[in-house]
Amino acid sequence: MAEIRIEQISKRYTGVVALDDVSLMVHDQEFMVLLGPSGCGKTTLLRLIAGFEQPDAGAILIDGRDVTDVPPGRRGLAMVFQSYALFPHLKVFDNIAFGLRMHHVGRDDVRRRVDGAAELMQITRLLDRFPMQLSGGQRQRVAVARALVMEPAVILMDEPLSNLDALLRLQMRAELKRLLQEARTTTVYVTHDQVEALSMGDRTAVMRDGRILQVDTPMMVYDHPGHVFVAQFIGTPPMNVLRGRMGDRAVEVEGHVLPVGIQDGFQPGEEVTFGVRAENIAVSHEDGEGALPAEVGVVEPLGSHLLLTLALGGQWLKVATRTDFAVKPHDQVWLRPEQGSIRLLGRPEEDG
User: Do residues 342 and 274 make contact, with C-beta atoms less than 8 angstroms apart?
Assistant: First the structure.
C-alpha cells in the first residue's frame, strides 16, 4: 500500500507563507490532483512530499511511516518534472535505466524492466535515440517510463503536460490517465489547468494562498463548490457568482425571486453570494413565470454553442445556449435557471 497522509504542514520562506497548516489524505492507488493558481503552494507541497524540502511544522507519512526527515531516495517514490529532466547525452534506454543502475539492479533485470516500461509507453522504437531527436510528447513518455521502471509506490508529477501544445496535451491527458491506472500506483499530480484536474483525477484539492479550500471528486468540486474562489476558478466559463438576499427558501436578486430549497443555515433577510453555471440557465425571447429579464451585452459564437454575456440589473452573468438562438447586443431576453442549480456559496464578507 502507498497511502500518503499530510498532517498540519506549514512552510515559510522569507516574508512568504507558502503553506499554512495543510492536511490531506491521499488513498492507496488514488490519483490526487493539486489544483490552483501560480503561487498557491501546490508545487511546494509536492516537493515536501518528495523530500526535496523540509516543513517548518507538521508531518508526512507514507504507508503509515513518518518520512518527514527521510531523504528522497529512501521514500519509495518517483517524480516527473515539468521540464522532463532527461540527460541529453544519454540515449532513451539509458535515461530510463539510470535509476535502476544507481540502485545496482542487475543487467538482465534492467533490460527486462526498461523493455516493459517502453512497451507500456509505446516508445520501444525510440530506445536508441537521444532526447534531442524526440518530440515533446515522446520526451514526456520517456520521463514517465523512467519513473514507472522504478516500480515506485508513489509517483509525483509537477505539471508534466504544460510544455506540450494544446492538441498533444489533449491526447496525452487520456493516455497518461490510462497508463497510471494500469500501473496501479498512488499519484499526486500538480497543475494549474482545471481541465486536467477535472478530466484526470480521482479527487481534486483546490488550493489558494497556501491553504486547501476544498477536496472532493472533480464533478463535486465543479457542481458543488464550497467557496467563491473554487466556483470562479473551476469551469469554462467560470460559475456565475451573484449577490442577493435570502427570502423564504429563495434568493431575491435584482428584484426577482429564485427558489433555492435548502438554506444551509442562512436566515431570511441575510445578504448571500450564490452561483449558477452558464449551462444551467435557459434563455428565451419570451417572458414567463419565474423568468428574469436581462439585456444582452456580448454574443460569442464558440462552435458548439453561443456564449452570451448578460446584464441582470446591476450584475453580469454568462449563459451558454444553442447556436441557432437568434440574438444580438442590446436585445432583452428572459432567463430561467434550472431547478436545483442554484448553489449558495456564503455571505459577501466571506468571499475573500
Answer: yes
Tens digit of each residue's pLDDT (9 = 90 or more) over 34-75:
999 999 999 999 999 999 999 999 999 999 999 999 998 888
Single out the residue of 28, 99, 108 nearest to residue 64, CA to CA.
Answer: 28
- Domain boundary residue, one of 212, 231, 250: 231
Q: Which domain holds residue 259?
A: 240-350
How is residue 338 annotated by DSSP? P
Give the separation between CA 163 and CA 136, rounded to whole angstroms. 7
In this structure, the answer to whether residues 288 and 225 fall within a common structural domain is no
* Whether residues 244 and 196 fall in one domain: no
Output the CA–CA distances (angstroms, integers) from residue 217 to 30, 35, 85, 200, in the order listed. Answer: 11, 12, 31, 11
DSSP secondary structure of 205-259: EEEETTEEEEEE-HHHHHHS-SSHHHHHHSTTTTPEEEEEEE-SSEEEETTEEEE
For residue 132, pLDDT over 90 is answered with yes
Q: pLDDT tens digits for 184-211?
A: 889 999 999 888 999 999 999 999 999 9
Which one of 174, 205, 231 terminates a domain?
A: 231
Same domain, residue pair 168 and 311: no
CATH code for the domain in which residue 256 is found: 2.40.50.140
